[in-house]
Amino acid sequence: MQQHALTLRFLDAGLETRYRSQRLQAFFRTLDTRYLAAQSILAAGFFISQPLLFPSIDFHWANVAYPAVCIINWLLISRLLPRCWYERHRHGLQLTFRALVDCLVVVGLPYWSPPVPVRSLGTFFTHLVLTSGAGTLIWASIGWPLLLQHHLPYNLAAATGFSVFVAPHVCSVIHQNALGGAYVRSAWAALGRLGVLSSQLRALLVTQLPVNAVIPAFGGAGGSGAAGGLEAGSTANAGAPLTDVTAGAA
Distance (Å, rounded) from C-alpha 15 to C-alpha 9? Predict the structure, then answer.
């Protein structure tokens, strides 16, 4: 059962087809039905109650579009789509709906998250996780699970889109006061220290490797040449003291 190194797809086409069919019925079908229903209720409840919970936030058309997309997705997957169509097109449909939801988040997020200045570490992390859209990407990855061959390229594209369209907003919100800028500098310093620690650990692991484990990395004739060079050097170093002793005795 050989699999692709990156996408984990079975190289045997028949085995891959059987795996997808079993995975659809045992995992995706239940998740699509229950999770999408719960998500539709939560989204509709949140945006209906938003004027009461957050009266300072202005209404935006994405407040209606987001729960509408969730409800349509749930109805289509669990009620309207024939079983044979579900088995054939489930991943493409979920990828489409997930892209629609992410686009709505990109459009509506600057309006949903008020530009509250950073007042504490909790406010800072709230902006990093929620205002930046990172929480939405994590939530969507759990709620709209895809095959790895679809999940990897889409998440890369979505993260790039959030970085381009949402990052300027969250950066302006965080940098409203000096405390926000101080937390940003502290976060970058912590990441820098983690990078230095990682490189030091890597260097330590490399130095602990035995010579015979490093030489094969050169491969083929190169490895033989390296081994020959080491052997020649050892022979020359071993012969040098004998020459000195002979010369001294003469």
Answer: 10
